[in-house]
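Per your request, structure below.
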C-alpha cells in the first residue's frame, strides 16, 4: 500500500504500488504548509487563520484558532509555551502560554512574511516579500531591515550556529534568479553568495553543520556545499518538480519534498537521491523528522512515516544481578536471544516481581549472570518511548541514547516523586538514563512517562527544571555526610546523612525502591531510605539494613558538615563521626545504627533582628520585618517625634521565625516616625531596637 488514510472511523489501507513507501495520512481540517517542532510538540501552519498542534510527535492532532484570518506561513517554537508565527500582510504574532492567547507584534513590514528564526530568546530574524530580511535584538519588540530590499522573495532562513546564517529565495528584478544571503556575525551584516546564484528559485535552505548545506530548487535539483558555502554543486535528483523543503536527521540521512507528490531520500549525505514517494499527486509543502516520525505536509493533510535507523549496541553486564533494558528495536525479543548467557529469568515488576520470557522496550528487568559478559544487540534506534507507570514504584527502561532525568516528561504533569535509582552491585541515584540500563522510579498516580532523546532545554518557560527536580536534589544530597558499606566481594553502596534539618520534600525523594531479588547486595536505612537527616525536636537512632552473603563488611564515612553531631553504634561500641574514618562489621549478627543528635533547623533565625521598613519613605502603607530565634512575647509600636505612641502593631506571644507585618497609615499625618520592637524569649533572652521612617503624602 502507498499510504493509509486516518479518519473519523479509524484507518484503512488500499493498494497502489507494493514498492511505494508506506505513509499514514491524517486529515487535519487544514492544509499544512509548514511544520515546526520542539521536542514532541509540533505545529503546522495553514492558508487560513488556524494551525494544527500535536503533543505526541504527530500521532494525534488538535486545531488551534489564531485571532487572524490571514495565511500563516511559518512558526518558530522557543519552547513548549512560547511560539511566534508570521504570514501574509506582515502578520506576526507571539504566544507565551502555548497558544491560548496571542499578542500581535509590529515588524514594520507590509508584504508577506515567509519564515522566522531565533538564535537566542532575544535575537531573531524574519524574511519575506520585497527582499525583506528583518532583525530584532529585543525578542521581537523592535525590528530593523538588515539588507537592501529588492524585487523578490526570501523563502527560507536557517542558522547552523549563532554566528552563521543563510537566507534564500528569488530575485525577480530581471529574469528569476536564485539568491542566497549569508551572515558571519550573527546577522549584523549580510552578503550575497555569488557562487550559488543562477537562474531559477531557491525554496529552502538546510545546513547539517557549518560545512555542509543544501538548497532546494524549482527545477527539482538540489544545490550542495561541503566547504562552508564557498562552492556549490548542483545535484541531479532525476525529478523535474519543484522541491519546496528538505530536512536532514544526521550527516547521511535526509529527505526532500515538493510538487505533485515528490518525496526524495538520501542515505549518503545528499550525493544521491532516491524516490521515496507515497504515490499521491498532492503537492507536498514541508517535511520534518520528529523522533522517528517523518512528517510531510500535503494538500490533503499530514502524511507520516516511521523511519528506522539500523544500529548496533554493545554493553557490559556484571557478575550476579543487573538492572537492564532493551535500548533498540529488535526482531526477536526473547530473553534467550538477547541474553544467552543469563543465569536467571528476566524479572519485571508490577507491585511484585514476575518472570517474562519475551522482553519489551521501555521496561526494566532484573537479570542474573554467573560471570561478567559483553552483550551485543543489533536492531534499530529507539529515540522515544512512552512508558506506562502505576502509582508507586516502577521498573523502567531507557533509549538508544543517554537522556537527562529532569528531561522526562510526564502525563499527568509532576507525578514523579522520587530520585531515579540504578543498580551496579548496589543501588545508586542518577541524573541521567543510560542505554541498556534499568531504573526504579516512584510516581504518585497512574500515568505515562515520555522518554525522548531530543535535546533538552531544562529551564524553558514551562519550568521543566524545578527546585526539587532530579538534578537539584542530587546536588543537595552530595553536600551531606556519607556512609559507604562494602562487602567482601567488593559490592558497595553509599548512604547519606545530615545533621541539619533538611526540607521534607527533598528527603522524600530518597525513599528507596523495593528490595532486589535474593542474592543481590543492598543497603538502606531501617526507614527504607538512602538519605536521612536530624530532627529539630528529638534524637534519632536509625538502624542500617544490609543484604549480603559476603562478610566481613567495611563501613567508611566522610564528613562534609564539620558541625556534625553523629555517632555510629556497632554492637556495644560507639564511634563519634566527627572526622573521616572506617570500621569493620565481622558478621551478620552484629547490628549497627546511626545516631543523630537534635539538628539545627535552618529555617529558624539564630539571632534577634529588626529590619528597615519597606518601602521607606512610604504612602500610605509599609511593611515591618523582624526575626525571633526563640518563641516569646513581642511588641512592635510606632511613635512620633515627641515620643507619643501612634500605633501598636504587635503585642502578643510570637513563635520563633521570620516575621512581617503591614501597617496602614492612612489616618496618620505626614512626618518622621519611629518604630520600636521589644521581645522577651524563653531562657531570659531579650531584645529591643528602634528605627526611623518617613511618611510622605
Amino acid at each position: 500500500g502507498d499510504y493509509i488514510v486516518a479518519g473519523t472511523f479509524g484507518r484503512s489501507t488500499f493498494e497502489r504500488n507494493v514498492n511505494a513507501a508506506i505513509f499514514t495520512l491524517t486529515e487535519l481540517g487544514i492544509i499544512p504548509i509548514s511544520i515546526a517542532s520542539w521536542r514532541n510538540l509540533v505545529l503546522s501552519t495553514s492558508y487560513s487563520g488556524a494551525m494544527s498542534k500535536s503533543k505526541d510527535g504527530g500521532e494525534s492532532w488538535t486545531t488551534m484558532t489564531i485571532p487572524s484570518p490571514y495565511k500563516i506561513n511559518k512558526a518558530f517554537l522557543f519552547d513548549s509555551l512560547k511560539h511566534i508565527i508570521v504570514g501574509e500582510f506582515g502578520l506576526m504574532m507571539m504566544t507565551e502560554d502555548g497558544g491560548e492567547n496571542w499578542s500581535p507584534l509590529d515588524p514594520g513590514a507590509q508584504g508577506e512574511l515567509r519564515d522566522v528564526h531565533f538564535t537566542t530568546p532575544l535575537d531573531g530574524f524574519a524574511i519575506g516579500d520585497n527582499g525583506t530580511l528583518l532583525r530584532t535584538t529585543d525578542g521581537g519588540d523592535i525590528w530593523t531591515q538588515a539588507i537592501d530590499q529588492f524585487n523578490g522573495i526570501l523563502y527560507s532562513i536557517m542558522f547552523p550556529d549563532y554566528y552563521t546564517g543563510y537566507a534564500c529565495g528569488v530575485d525577480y528584478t530581471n529574469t528569476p534568479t536564485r539568491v542566497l544571503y549569508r551572515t558571519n556575525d550573527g546577522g549584523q551584516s549580510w552578503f550575497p553568495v555569488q557562487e550559488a546564484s543562477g537562474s531559477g528559485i531557491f525554496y529552502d535552505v538546510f545546513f547539517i553543520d557549518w560545512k555542509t548545506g543544501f538548497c532546494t530548487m524549482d527545477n527539482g535539483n538540489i544545490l550542495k556545499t561541503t566547504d562552508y558555502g564557498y562552492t556549490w554543486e548542483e545535484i541531479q535528483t532525476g525529478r523535474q518538480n519543484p522541491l519546496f523543503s528538505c530536512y536532514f536527521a544526521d550527516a547521511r540521512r535526509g529527505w526532500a519534498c515538493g510538487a505533485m507528490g515528490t518525496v526524495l531520500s538520501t542515505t549518503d549525505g545528499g550525493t544521491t537521491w532516491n524516490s521515496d514517494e507515497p504515490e499521491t499527486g498532492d503537492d507536498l509543502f514541508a517535511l520534518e523528522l520528529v523522533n522517528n516520525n517523518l512528517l510531510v505536509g500535503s494538500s490533503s493533510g499530514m502524511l507520516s512515516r516511521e523511519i528506522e535507523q539500523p544500529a548496533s549496541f554493545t554493553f557490559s553486564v556484571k557478575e550476579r544481578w543487573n538492572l537492564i533494558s532493551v535500548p533498540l528495536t529488535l526482531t526477536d525479543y526473547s530473553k534467550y536471544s538477547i541474553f544467552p548467557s543469563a543465569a536467571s529469568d528476566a524479572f519485571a515488576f508490577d507491585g511484585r516481581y514476575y518472570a517474562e520470557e519475551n522482553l519489551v522496550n521501555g521496561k526494566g528487568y532484573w537479570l542474573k549472570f554467573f560471570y561478567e559478559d559483553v552483550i551485543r544487540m543489533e536492531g534499530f534506534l529507539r529515540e522515544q518511548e512512552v512508558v506506562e507507570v502505576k502509582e508507586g514504584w516502577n521498573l523502567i527502561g531507557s533509549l538508544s541514547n543517554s537522556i537527562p532525568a529532569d528531561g522526562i516528561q510526564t502525563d499527568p504533569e509532576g507525578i514523579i516523586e522520587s530520585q531515579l535509582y540504578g543498580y551496579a552491585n548496589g543501588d545508586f541515584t542518577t541524573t541521567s538514563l543510560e542505554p541498556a540500563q534499568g531504573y526504579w522510579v516512584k510516581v504518585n498516580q497512574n500515568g505515562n512517562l515520555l522518554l525522548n532523546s531530543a535535546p533538552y532545554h531544562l529551564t524553558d518557560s514551562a519550568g521543566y527544571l524545578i527546585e526539587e527536580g532530579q538534578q537539584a536534589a542530587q546536588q543537595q544530597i552530595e553536600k551531606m555526610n556519607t556512609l559507604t558499606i562494602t562487602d567482601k566481594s567488593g559490592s558497595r553502596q553509599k548512604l547519606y546523612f545530615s545533621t541539619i534539618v533538611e526540607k521534607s520534600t527533598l528527603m522524600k525523594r530518597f525513599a528507596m525502591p523495593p528490595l532486589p531479588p535474593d542474592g543481590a547486595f543492598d543497603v538502606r536505612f531501617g526507614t527504607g531510605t538512602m538519605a536521612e537527616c536530624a530532627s529539630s525536636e528529638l534524637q534519632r537512632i536509625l538502624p542500617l539494613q544490609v543484604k549480603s552473603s559476603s562478610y566481613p563488611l567495611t563501613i567508611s564515612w566522610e564528613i562534609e558538615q564539620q558541625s556534625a553531631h553523629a555517632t555510629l553504634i556497632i554492637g556495644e561500641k560507639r564511634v563519634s563521626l566527627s572526622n573521616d574514618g572506617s570500621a569493620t562489621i565481622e558478621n551478620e549478627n552484629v547490628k549497627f545504627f546511626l545516631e543523630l543528635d537534635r539538628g539545627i533547623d535552618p529555617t529558624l533565625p539564630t539571632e534577634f533582628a529588626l529590619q528597615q521598613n519597606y518601602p521607606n519613605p512610604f504612602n500610605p502603607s509599609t511593611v515591618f520585618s523582624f526575626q525571633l530565634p526563640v518563641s516569646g512575647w513581642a511588641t512592635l509600636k510606632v511613635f512620633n517625634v515627641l515620643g507619643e505612641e501612634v500605633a501598636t502593631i504587635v503585642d502578643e506571644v510570637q513563635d520563633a521565625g521570620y516575621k512581617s507585618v503591614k501597617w496602614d497609615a492612612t489616618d496618620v499625618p505626614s512626618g518622621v516616625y519611629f518604630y520600636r520592637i521589644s521581645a522577651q524569649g524563653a531562657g531570659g533572652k531579650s531584645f529591643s531596637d528602634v528605627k526611623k521612617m518617613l511618611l510622605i503624602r
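The longest strand covers residues 671-681.

Regards,
D.
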